[in-house]
Amino acid sequence: MSGRPLDVLEGALAQTVTVRLKDGDTVYGQLSGYDQHMNVVLDADDSVIDEAVLGDPTAEPIEDTTIIRGDNVVSITV
Amino acid sequence: MSGRPLDVLEGALAQTVTVRLKDGDTVYGQLSGYDQHMNVVLDADDSVIDEAVLGDPTAEPIEDTTIIRGDNVVSITV
Amino acid sequence: MSGRPLDVLEGALAQTVTVRLKDGDTVYGQLSGYDQHMNVVLDADDSVIDEAVLGDPTAEPIEDTTIIRGDNVVSITV
Amino acid sequence: MSGRPLDVLEGALAQTVTVRLKDGDTVYGQLSGYDQHMNVVLDADDSVIDEAVLGDPTAEPIEDTTIIRGDNVVSITV
Amino acid sequence: MSGRPLDVLEGALAQTVTVRLKDGDTVYGQLSGYDQHMNVVLDADDSVIDEAVLGDPTAEPIEDTTIIRGDNVVSITV
Amino acid sequence: MSGRPLDVLEGALAQTVTVRLKDGDTVYGQLSGYDQHMNVVLDADDSVIDEAVLGDPTAEPIEDTTIIRGDNVVSITV
Amino acid sequence: MSGRPLDVLEGALAQTVTVRLKDGDTVYGQLSGYDQHMNVVLDADDSVIDEAVLGDPTAEPIEDTTIIRGDNVVSITV
Question: The Sm domain covers which part of the protein (chains A, B, C, D, E, F, G) (predicted)?
């Protein structure tokens, strides 16, 4: 199981991640926490984000600390 | 897992939170309780809320103590 | 977790509650029981209900003792 | 939790109950069994049912012993 | 819980049962097995079935041994 | 529970099975593994398949070893 | 249960896999991790992929390390 999903999240703490949701929205922010259900906490990301880096030009920034319930998550790009 | 989702909810008790629901509605109120399923209890918030602060001008205020079942929650902004 | 969801339900026993369902219906009745899945039992409420108090003029009264399965519940206003 | 949902089902054994399903159908029959998932068994009900008593004129009678899987149930009126 | 759902399935082994699925299809066959998730195994039923007996003229016969995953089941008529 | 669903899968190992999916697709291949969630592994089936035998002329063959997650499965015909 | 689904994933580590998602998208990348929920981690795959080999000409490459939550997965072709 090398490089397990939760290990990858642990390694992404304090980094910018892009979260694709089941309702079609994509958001990005700084990963500040998560749990075993893949519930995640995103903080506003003050760094300048190059949208090309995000890989998804439609991604919206998180503006306030937000908990996303894991069952809405399609994927998390780190 | 630093800053885990339930820890963030614990820290937001008695504060105004905005809850986005799977049916597209967004509501806000004062967080008065929660549990491990992310079921939350919101009370009416008597403070004057600056909608700009909420980040979502379509958010509706909770008018009476309301339990929201966790499986309807997309995200909680604290 | 102060004011946890199930504690709020316990405190609402024998009171009128309004239950919003995932299919869009909203019903109200007297809460006579619940369990840890948020399955609830509503009885007909013989008191005169002021719809303004319910907060939702489209809410329909429960006419006979009804068990609502918890996974249909969006929210319960107490 | 007084009057818990499963206790109400226990009390309704051998009585006519009306079950509303997630697909919009409503059926009625004599409750002959249930389990903790709210799976229920309905038998044909030979008594003459006054539809006004059922509260739902669109309810269809169960004609043969039928197991309804609990995750299809919206509500059970006893 | 008298006449519990799984007991009713146990009693229906080797008999013709009609299974209504969430996708709207209804199938019938001889019940040859089941488990606690209400996954069921149906075999082709070589007896002549009187559709009036099935209660559902749209029911389709199972032609080869088929496992139906329980979470697709709305109801099983025995 | 005679002829339980997982026993039927065990007996079908190395045989051609037809899997109907919730999205409407039907695929067939040689069953090379499964687990208790009804996740299944299908391999390409090099034998000549008579579509009449499959019972479903729209079934598509699996071309490379494929894991199907169990919660997508409607039924498995063996 | 020979050739169980998770064993097949274990054997596919560091190889190119194609993942079909419930929203209709299909993506491919190098499998770098997974867990028991079939959450998977895909890395960008720098090798030249012959689309004929993928079996699905609509499959999109993963461009950055991405965690896909298992409940979105229809199938994984290895």
Answer: 4-78
Is the confidence at residue F52, as pLDDT, over 90?
no
pLDDT at D60 over 90: yes
Nearest to C33 among D3, D55, D71 (CB): D3
Whether F45 contacts F65, CB under 8 Å: no
Task: State yes or no: pLDDT of B43 exceeds 90.
Answer: yes
Q: Give the residue numbers in D contacting E (CB under 8 Å), as ranges.
A: 10, 13, 21, 23, 32-35, 39-41, 63-69, 71-72
Q: How far is Cα B10 from Cα E50, in angstroms, rounded to an integer?
A: 62
Q: Which two tokens stand for residue D42?
A: 């309905």
CB G51 within 8 A of CB G57: yes
Pair D31, D14: CB distance under 8 Å:
yes
Rounded to whole angstroms, the Cα distance separating E47 from E28 reads 12
Per-domain residue ranges of chain A: 5-77
Tell me what pLDDT residue B12 has.
97
Determine the Cα–Cα distance for residues D41 and A55; give it in Å rounded to an integer.
Answer: 52
Give dist(CA B75, CA A69) in Å, integer.
Answer: 6
E5-77: which CATH number, 2.40.290.10, 3.40.50.740, 2.30.30.100, 3.40.800.10? 2.30.30.100
Identify the CA nearest to F71 among candidates F29, F26, F23: F23
Residue F62 φ/ψ region, left for φ over 0, alpha for ψ in the -120 to 50 degree band, beta for the rest? beta
CB count within 10 Å of CB B50 equals 7
pLDDT of residue C50: 62
Query: What's the whole-number mean pLDDT along residues F41-64?
Result: 79
The complex scores an ipTM of 0.90
- The mean predicted confidence, pLDDT, of chain G is 91
- The share of chain A scoring above pLDDT 90, in percent, equals 78
For residue B50, give how far its alpha carbon lies from the nearest alpha carbon of chain A (Å): 14
Distance from CA of C39 to the nearest CA of D (A): 7
User: Which residues in G have their CB inside 8 Å of a CB on F?
Assistant: 1-9, 22, 38, 55, 70-71, 73-78
User: Average of pLDDT values for C42-58?
Assistant: 73
Residues of D in contact with C41 (CB under 8 A): 3-5, 8
What is residue A22's predicted lDDT score, i.e. its pLDDT? 97
Interface size between C and D, measured as CB pairs under 8 A = 59
Q: Is the pLDDT of residue A50 over 70?
A: no
Residues present in chain E in total? 78
CA angle E68, E73, E74 (to 5 degrees): 160
d(CA G54, nearest CA chain F) in Å: 9
**Which amino acid, one-letter code, is at C4?**
R
pLDDT tens, residue by residue, F6-27: 999 999 999 999 999 999 999 9
The answer to whether B and F touch (≥3 CB pairs < 8 Å) is no
